[in-house]
UniProtKB/TrEMBL annotation:
It is found in: Cell membrane. It is a multi-pass membrane protein. It comes from the Bacteria. InterPro entries: LeuE-type. Keywords: Cell membrane, Membrane, Transmembrane, Transmembrane helix. Pfam families: LysE. PANTHER family: ARGININE EXPORTER PROTEIN ARGO (PTHR30086), ARGININE EXPORTER PROTEIN ARGO-RELATED (PTHR30086:SF20). The chain crosses the membrane at residues 44-68, 75-96, 116-138, 150-175, 187-206. The keyword Transmembrane applies. This is LysE family translocator. It comes from Pseudomonas benzenivorans. Coiled coil: none annotated.
Length: 210
């Protein structure tokens, strides 16, 4: 398939990697449990689009800038840190803005989608992962190298989206069963906000390697 090497091994590795819990999966789980299955599914689509952008960047060599430049890595990392903390604070504020007996107003799905894209894009570790992982199954000397990278990135993103959809369905199901009452929903959303802020702090502690 366009000269892609060890495609079967790539699919096995892709499934294993996507099943491993990480920041993206935690974000989708928190969104689904706080706002419902639809929000979790749309978040997963946003994450998938972010992965495709990272695949494009890796295919055209843009991700290499993050590997070679400490400044570029730091700029993307701190943009992600600030965005995640800001997003978490907004969720907590929204959870407690309404009166205790009033149902929370959910964020629009378009907004949830954009947030999913940005959560993924502002994580430089994802860019470096694609830069290190995809070329192992492509041939740099092939005239189809860019297409190989894009196809590999597409398969990885599709697999991740399917896995994340399962996470959204599971967390959305339990969230809806436990969160019918506004008070409980408020604590759910607050917990999601705190979790997202913790993800931002975790990103702040990461360092560029290589």
């Amino acid at each position: 398939m366009l000269g892609i090497e060890h495609f079967g091994l790539f699919l096995v590795a892709t499934l294993a990697l996507n099943l491993t819990p990480g920041p993206d999966m935690l974000y989708i789980a928190s969104r689904a449990s706080a706002q419902g299955t639809s929000a979790g599914l749309v978040s997963g689509l946003g994450i998938g689009v972010g992965c495709l952008v990272h695949a494009l960047a890796a295919a055209f060599g843009l991700s290499a800038l993050l590997l070679m430049s400490a400044l570029a890595f730091s700029l993307v990392k701190w943009a992600g840190v600030l965005y995640l903390i800001w997003l978490g604070v907004q969720l907590v504020r929204a959870a407690w803005r309404e009166s205790p007996g009033q149902a929370l107003a959910p964020a629009s799905l378009s907004r949830v989608f954009c947030q999913g894209v940005l959560v993924n894009l502002f994580n430089p570790k994802v860019a470096l992962f694609f830069l290190a992982f995809l070329p192992q199954f492509a041939r740099p000397d092939s005239p189809n190298f860019v297409w190989q990278m894009l196809l590999l990135g597409l398969f990885f993103s599709l697999c991740g989206t399917l896995v994340n959809a399962g996470v959204a369905l599971l967390c959305g199901h339990f969230g809806s069963r436990l969160g019918n009452r506004p008070a409980w929903r408020r604590w759910q959303q607050s917990g999601a906000g705190v979790l997202i802020m913790a993800m931002g702090i975790g990103l702040a502690l990461t360092e560029r390697r290589g």
